[in-house]
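Practice problem: predict the structure.
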Amino acid sequence: MRRKNLTYLCCLLMMLLSFSVFAKKKEPPEPPQNLPPSGPGLPINGGISLLIIAGAAYGVYAKIKRLKN
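Answer:
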């Protein structure tokens, strides 16, 4: 097969596979009834600001170190 035809065939197969996976939706499981009460959870993006600050600080450190050499 030519490369172009092989690419189209792979794309078609991937689309069919993804449609078949999404078509098999299952019912969500029943939540357990005997759970103790829980407190508030952490937000999903709780530590992302600290991670960005640490990355920026490391970037500045690496840039200064590279300029000194």
